[in-house]
Protein 1
Amino acid sequence: MFKEILHRLQGRIPTLPSHAAYELWAGTYGEQQNNIFLQAEERALLPLLDEHPLTNQSVLDAGCGSGRHIRHCLDRHAMRIVGIDFSRAMLHRGAWASEQHPVSLVEGSVEMLPLRDSSFDLVLVPLVLGHVRNLRPAAAELTRVLKSGGRLLISDWHPENERRGWKRVFEVPFGEGRAGRFAVQHHFHETDEYLRCFESEGFLLEKRIEPAIDESMRKAFENNGMEKIYGKHLGSPLVLVLGFRKP
Ligand SMILES: C[S@@+](CC[C@H](N)C(=O)[O-])C[C@H]1O[C@@H](n2cnc3c(N)ncnc32)[C@H](O)[C@@H]1O
């Protein structure tokens, strides 16, 4: 039945609500080579992670997915890492992480975190908030669980991507070399909306980085068959990375 639906949908790109999308995407999530968005995001975010040692820090990875940033925090010897995600299938992808000593994985939403007040020194929210229609409940929850003096690092698709009409598309293989293509529902938030929302929670903006398409990404675009897009959008921002501190 499911295969039947996928067959019928092939050729169009339907948009799925984010929870349903990640439940479906989880099986292949993170397998794409040359993912230009992840490369751009890491180029901006990892130096921010490195600004302070994590050795005595308690870290929340909100919307941890397959645990990409949990791995980065493990590499930096974080004292305690909690990964939370609302998709069971994505948490399953991240299950490797729960076998590591300081990591625990929890099912839950960034809009209602099942976590104690003031329990983290560092909160990461990588490529997640675009899936949240209204930023305010998530911002209030992220503020609540962060200790005073703690850091909040957010990354997301850049609002420019919306203006270009780009979609977050993924493929689900369904046998005999065929695949269904879907877009994940994304609620674009302007940069000012992020700033207003988190500053009204009392956060101080420390970093704003907008990695753009540049020469170093040419190969990745070529390997994805996107040479034309590379030429057209060279110099345009791809990802928004914001670093805040809770006073
Ligand atoms: C693009 S993936 C990013 C995964 C990971 N943060 C990374 O950067 O590799 C978005 C993740 O956010 C999760 N997610 C989306 N909305 C969420 C919400 N409201 N609460 C918790 N997780 C959410 C999805 O299930 C998915 O795993």
Protein 2
Amino acid sequence: MTAVVTLIADPTRRSLDDDVLASLGQALADAGFAPAPPVWLSPGEAVDIAVARADVAVVRPVAEVALDGMPIDVAVQPQANRRKRLLVADMDSTIIGQECIDELAAALGLREEVSAITERAMRGEIEFAAALRERAAMLAGLGPDEMEAVLRDRITLNLGAHTLVATMRKNGAFTALVSGGFTFFTSRIRARAGFDMDQANVLLTDDEGKLTGLVAEPVLGRAAKREALQALTAARGFATAETMAVGDGANDLAMIEAAGLGVAFRAKPAVAEQADVRITHGDLTALLFLQGYQRAEFITPT
Ligand SMILES: [Mg+2]
């Protein structure tokens, strides 16, 4: 098969230059491969190098070692089925820059207590559902106006989120925001970023709209994300190879493993280790470069 190596730099630094490409070219040649000439997706920012008759699993460590320590993301994947027809994205710390539950807790003066639990859950050190119930209980009494204020004042889309979703949709893909967080946020972030659908847990409220501290059961955790990916894939008649999942936390692992291309975005170590691709330096438009889109093809909503 043909493997394609994609290098992606921080878009503000554009540090891809001839020296970087020469280092990679030499390493591939030393390993017995004959890489094709580089094809720029965005000058200085993203580039493809096709390697014919090459196994992804063999090329990947060669490319990673060659660029080790450089501020550049290195992805190696099969050339076939690069353009994806389904995107399933985590929300907290992936599509947005925050953990919503920590921001809700901050409104009650409980950020430290809650974020410590969030951190351990996202690292996979404690069970997701139990940790979610425990933190939701700490939010009891929070009112609808306070929640609206959190959404308005504290929650921001990560760079590239809008462009990623708009470009994939323009090219016919289906996009889903699938979260272990809460529908209060996913319904709004879905609209803000332009996703086709969202799925998340429901925070239960009393007659005045205040949080009761309970979450609707069953809690949607790691398995629910994988099931959402697989259900959408089957319902729309996609091949697994045509699907992409992106996330940062331990509850994203199952969908990242099940997707045709699993992407760890600025992820916890346990997630980064398991994913097909790790994005650390690029923003969310890196997921478009991974699919071979040139920057000139990006759709940027105004
Ligand atoms: Mg997350």
